[in-house]
Amino acid sequence: MCKECGCGITETSDKKAIEVFEDILKYNQFQAKHNREHFETYKIYAINLMSAPGAGKTTLLEKTLELLKDKYRLGVIEGDLETERDAERIRQKGIPVYQITTGSACHLDASLVHKAMHHLPMDQIDILFVENIGNLVCPANYDLGTHLNVTLLSVPEGEDKPEKYPLIFKSSELIVITKIDLLPYFDFNLDRVKEQIKRINPQAKVMALSSKTGEGFEDWIDFVENKLKEYRQKLV
Amino acid sequence: MHEFFIVQNIIKTVEDIVQQYPGKKITKAVLLIGKFSGVEIDLLKTALDFFKKGSPLENAEIFIEIEDLKLRCLDCGKEFVKDKWDISCPYCGSLNTKVISGEEMLLKSLELEEET
Predict the structure, then answer these.
(1) Per CATH, is B3-69+101-114 categorized as 3.30.70.380?
(2) Residues 75 to 114 of B: which have CB under 8 A from any A CB?
(3) I want to staple A151 with a disulfide (CB 3.0 to 4.6 A). Which of A76, A172, A232, B35 is the partner?
(4) CA-CA distance, B2 to A67, in Å (whole number)?
């Protein structure tokens, strides 16, 4: 360190040491901020859905679209699709959807979402759902510029997942336990999982539902609608 | 396996900096990686070795400093280190704690030398 002023830039004979302390993911942060500005320009409330593969993101999304489509103008960015058929099903509901083809990428990042935005009628969307790649590890690191990060945890995955993959649970504002119609068949203690999540992220809200039976689904829909309302009030 | 993307970002960060120092080459780079940054250190090393070729880091020695998960309890004021991501205070049980380190993913410093 420099003795004169305490800065990190010192010059020895021919070597120069520079203190940098730059965030390695800053490019993604810039892009995420930019996306957020875009969303705000169009008054879009954007939701990032994350989970392991098979936790029920697509099913939750389909049911959600069905319940909200008459009330709001919706849009979908799909990062995780098993087949184009799913996208087609969403399209048939009259909802604009763009599928990001990531090949074998393990997560979406802010620039992929940005590119996808340009394929959607942004001026005709109130709520935009982004379905992330099925993965509990990598998506946790990438801010997409969305307003709400949601992680789904399905009953069959087991109650140890928050402890094993804490980062995604800590970066989510809402945790949705899915497939609770299967609770009788699995050793999955809801209270224990909630307690576990609390130690990882005490601010997170946890709710439980079944997209199949509809149990608890109202809470999720209410949550989304309230969030949208809050968001719009803030924008005014 | 997003370590490849992270390495791309490291290289981009380094390229931006080295532009400000024409005629210099990088001999050393130090990264500061939190234990809970979401990066697997071994995979990062492998990815760095592979992808640094042709980049300004090609001939640089790369050091990775690992940062523990350190927290401060906002109720009792004590500081503590955790091996797993459980933010509860071991002294008073409070969940009202603040992460001091362990999440970071930083390019800490570089050492440059006159290009020969």
Answers:
(1) no
(2) 84-88, 95-96, 104-114
(3) A172
(4) 35
